[in-house]
Specification:
It is built from 8 helices and 8 strands; from the N terminus they run ββαβαβαβααβαβααβ. The chain is an alpha/beta fold. Strands 1-2-3-4-5-6-7-8 form an 8-stranded mixed beta sheet.
């Protein structure tokens, strides 16, 4: 495995895969330009990886029986086709595989699902379908994200669909929750924007930062998701 570009490696995380102890691989590059991205330093796909795959192999060999799995994150993890081979190797070593994705590459996502290479997916929905260009860039269509959502819901793989509130306040989050419910989403997570690693040119307004967990939980109750969560 020499052609996967890894920007960073976190040996242990308790938050990137709910209920699991996992190592996290941050893969280099993303085709989207969300203004609030907290990993904006690793978005350039032309930047080479900083962590060799051999380092990942050594870590996992030492963590047999200690880690539950490995999360492939980003950037956009599915941008690199080599993620399929990497996930297969992680599975062969006896670990479960988690995936963070915004659904930008449904063909690669489909390969991971079809080959049973992922055990859990955190799928980020960025906005309502008609608003994707305003958040992810002028060349972006929501079609790929929606296609990936459909693939995920048909797969039977454990998942959460997440929306990070970055504009519009809870009124907008409510519209996103309603849209997700209409698509068949059962596990929905509303995330508070983490402001400590924001790009220097993005300044969230009070509608983004000044909302309460109890208020958000009450809003979500009307949709009766079998599983829903406000993550702060």
């Amino acid at each position: 495995m020499t052609d996967i570009a890894i920007a960073g490696l976190q040996p242990l995380s308790t938050v990137d895969w709910p209920g699991k102890l996992a190592a996290v691989l941050f893969l280099q590059g993303c085709p989207w330009s969300c203004p609030y991205c907290h990993n904006y330093q690793i978005l350039d796909p032309a930047t080479p990886g900083a962590v060799p795959w051999e380092e990942v192999q050594r870590l996992l060999a030492k963590r047999q029986g200690l880690l539950d799995g490995v999360v492939f994150s980003g950037g956009e993890a599915t941008r690199q086709r080599a993620v399929v081979e990497a996930a297969a190797e992680v599975k062969e070593m006896g670990f479960q595989v988690g995936l963070h994705t915004a659904g930008a590459y449904p063909s690669t996502f489909a390969r991971l699902l079809d080959q049973n290479l992922v055990d859990w997916v955190g799928l980020d929905i960025k906005a309502l379908p008609g608003d994707y260009q305003g958040v992810a860039g002028p060349a972006v269509s929501a079609d790929k994200a929606q296609q990936s959502l459909e693939l995920l819901l048909k797969s039977g793989v454990d998942y959460e669909v997440r929306f990070t509130l970055w504009q519009g306040g809870l009124d907008y989050a409510e519209k996103v929750a309603a849209w997700c419910q209409s698509q068949g989403v059962e596990n929905f997570v509303l995330q508070r924007l983490q402001t400590q690693h924001l790009p220097p040119n993005y300044n969230p307004g009070p509608e983004v930062t000044n909302w309460g967990q109890a208020q958000a939980e009450e809003m979500l109750k009307q949709y009766e998701f079998p599983q829903s969560l406000v993550r702060v």
